Amino acid sequence: MGRLKGLTAIVTGGGSGFGKGIVEAFAREGASVVVTDINGESAEAVAAEQRASGASAQAMEVDVADPAGLAAAVARCESQFGGLDVMVANAGIGQRPGTMLETSLETLRTHFEINALGAFNSCQAALPALRKRDAASILITVSGIALAPRPQLYGYGMSKAAAMYLMKALAVELAPERIRVNGLFPAVGDTPMLAEFSGGERSAEADDRFVQGLPLGRFITPEDVGQAAVFLSSPVEAGAFTGCALPVDAGRCI
Ligand SMILES: NC(=O)c1ccc[n+]([C@@H]2O[C@H](COP(=O)([O-])OP(=O)(O)OC[C@H]3O[C@@H](n4cnc5c(N)ncnc54)[C@H](O)[C@@H]3O)[C@@H](O)[C@H]2O)c1
Known about the structure:
The protein is of the alpha/beta class. The protein has a single domain (8-248), classed as NAD(P)-binding Rossmann-like Domain (Rossmann fold). It contains 8 helices and 7 strands. A 7-stranded parallel β-sheet has the order 3-2-1-4-5-6-7, sandwiched between helices. Helix 4 (105-130) runs parallel beside helix 5 (154-174). It binds nicotinamide-adenine-dinucleotide.
């Protein structure tokens, strides 16, 4: 408890799955959080749950494809909580598998718009505020697919590889200012996104196949990702970590 005490954060895509797990872990460790999501109702539900347990949490409906919405979230975090220490660029969309010939340019563009450019927009909006703080950092939820590609997920995989590039390049750019930039690289998660990777609907057979590809024999949970996010965002525990691609993947990328 208290590992992020006094820090403030924005979590994009915080209304569900891994983002919700990150919000919960941050709040438990004493951070004040602005929960943003394109789904304003789910963001508000997550923030309300945290407020009910005594944490400081606000919600905002923000599409990561909209730089003005992200700037408003940063302004809200500064006015409500006195500044912004951690930007968690977590929002993303999954994909139904398809071969190269089944993949349209529109699919690729949509994935780049949210998974790659959305992360870029989130970092860009946060940077002026982060520069005012002493222990600032950025965390991007990438994916194990950027480290170990899988077939038939071209839009998702290519956009996540771009997000990994963003994480590493920004880590180098901001290192002289002591702003750390790191990435979480989860494998298959037990979140609503899994239905997309399963072709539209989860099934016991598809779940079994996914789990068999994970050496520890279990899905990644929002709690797993939340714990890893707390570690990388703590200036005490992870002060020497920047440009770090941390697999949270039950051994998938070994
Ligand atoms: N679930 C997995 O297997 C898995 C594996 C590796 C990485 N990831 C990544 O983890 C992150 C979270 O995914 P999840 O599994 O929790 O999925 P999820 O679908 O449960 O949550 C994603 C959240 O992002 C929000 N979102 C979608 N588009 C948005 C937009 N344009 N602007 C703002 N918010 C938007 C959704 O409303 C949702 O609340 C994503 O970046 C995803 O790519 C997921």
